[in-house]
Please model this.
Amino acid sequence: MLPPDNAAATVRAASTPSETCLKTPALASLLLLCPALALAQQEVDRATTTATPTPNANQLERVSVTRQQTDTDLRRREPVAKQLYGREELDKYGDTQLSDVLKRLPGINVSGGQLRMRGLGGAYTQILVNGEPAPPGFSLDNLNPAQVERLEVSKAPTADQTAQAIAGTLNIILKDAPRIVQKDLRIGVAYANEKPIVNGGFTYGNRTVGGLGFVLPINVFQWDNRNETDGERLRDTGATRLSSSGADRSHGRGVNVSPRLNWKLGDDETLSLQGFFITNRFFNDGNNTTEVLASNASSVLPQSVLDETHNRGTFSAQRVNLQYNNRFGEDRRVELRAGAGRGGADFKFDFLGRDKNGVQTVTRTTTGDNSNRNATLSGKYSQYAGEAHTVTTGAEIERRARDETRRTVENGVDLLPGIEGQPFDATITRTAAYAQDEWEINKQWSAYFGVRHEQIKTVSNGIGSEFNSTSKVTTPLLHLNFKPDPKARDLIRASLTRSYKAADVQQLIARPTINTDYPATGANARTNTQTAPDRIGNPDLKPELATGLDIAWENYLPAGGLISVGVFHRRITGLVRNSLVLEQNVSWASVPRWVAKPINLSKATTEGLEFEIKGRASELFPSLFEPATALSMRASLNLYRSRVADIPGPDNRLEGQQPWQFNFGADYRLKSLPVNMGFSAQIAPKFNVQQTALQSQETLPARSLDAFVAAQLSKQDGVRFSVNGLFQPKQGTRVAIINGDYNLSERKPVAWWSVNWEHKF
Model:
């Protein structure tokens, strides 16, 4: 059905309190007290109560009470399966990076800045900002949770959003204009490396005359992380064994702003303008020492054993969106959107190699920059059809243009003359049309039918990168909800959907990226190894298509708790994997080279079990805790399994998908002091993935503990102490080749300590 304009549900009382009591059998014995309760309610909730005078002075007034719904309430009312997280979850640990919030949510982990859902790689997970694809190069580390209104996590696609979401979708809803004046100041100090860093933010929002409302969140941020690294390599068919150790440091600073203006043109007509601006400057420095443990006379040893790397760059993104909503009467509604954005990045990467005597042997500099521009236009029309149907149709068009240059110079000579340093551009045009029907079948059943057709056309120009690729996908969708008891709150949800993943520009471009440890041309040219291949794109890639089935039982407990058990299955065709082949003749080398190239395989399947429980301890375990115990608990267990048909087992899993993931945590509020405290832990095992018939990759186990203590000093001031990433073991991977060669890379992350102060004016 058509959703209400106000996000919070409004519960209206009957004409008189007596009628309310009669309609609620459990309160029938309080009939004589209803008038007094109604008068008391008017005094206590005056800020959220509106009264309408009646001609009869003896008749009590009509009372309308608005109650703010919890995240669990909103989740239960969604027509499709969706997890919602609002301010309580966003503010709990005082995080300054959105990625830290996400890693604690059920079924989600963040690796290398990439969001993974259901254990699948970042490319399988769709990230939206206010319902539109995130800007190219967008990182979750660059968005402060204070700028976010709520997070919406969907495991199955809907027709009104692009279906490029095989694993699921994260929709980041930016902060909306408040109903009352909001002025918040946040200042924090954090430490993880050499010196403390400062983060700060200010949010100002208000409602003015003429139906205008606005909010202006501004945040400045810094980061400074250090990892100890070590590794071991066996190469040249076991002829050479190397060990390495070193450290890398990542630091930088930035600012992001997301202003919003709402204009209420009429009772059912609104216009909103949303801005989204991010800019940052990053620095990455590393050093590495390589030691030759064993070799024979025929081995070709590395040119350098002492390496230094320095990377400098900037990233920026700007977007403005205009949205118009109008409800025509009670049964029709239109939504129009238009947006434009631009952004880009540049970098300079220096590599300095020295021998064991400190003599410089290699100087390599890679420079590059890219710029992105995009424009979007969309429209959606909804209308009641009969008593139980809401039919919606819509269309979208998006156009993105990307220009990029890159150049690598080694010891004063271009590494790939005629290819590197040559600019190229790509234009991506995405069009879509969809229709959906939300059907309230009866008190127990509701359904959501939809179909979406989407086309993506990519055209690229430039030396080594000319191609024209078009993909078309039609995605039918069916979501069902069943209430075993119409008067209860429990739900059984089922979804049968199709989703897909289109190849990105970098996968399509046929430009090579060579492994610089093994020169491709010149007097020192030599064949690289399977653990150090060159890479090239494939303009003939087709989209991966996935047919998915999701079934979940959601038990909503009376005091706001939740127990959810779900299963899912995805059948993927046209799976993209990197092939690894020794090419005898390549255009960029004078010797044979091992080359990794993405190709479409036949099919793969993945399935899993998802369990989630959260709520007050006294509700979950009534025999162990008193009802007044201010302790909340939560836990989630996710089990995953997958198989790739064209790759031999036993570990022919989808790339990066762990067998299981376990999260658990608790929050406690002290009775004697205004103090909250809590913790959250995440655990995942070591696992192996057979990537090709020749190569496998083992990922080391992961575990982490976050904790916080928050004290409310006054009505206006609060302070929060937190730590992220305690007890983390070494992280990394071990790539092994069937001939016995391998490459082990490990790093030891450092915990992040912080203290944050918040003042409300």
Observations:
- The chain is about 5% helix and 60% strand.
- The radius of gyration is 29 Å.
- Residues 1-67 have pLDDT under 50 and may be disordered.
- Helices lie at 17-23, 34-44, 71-77, 87-91, 98-102, 505-508, 617-620.
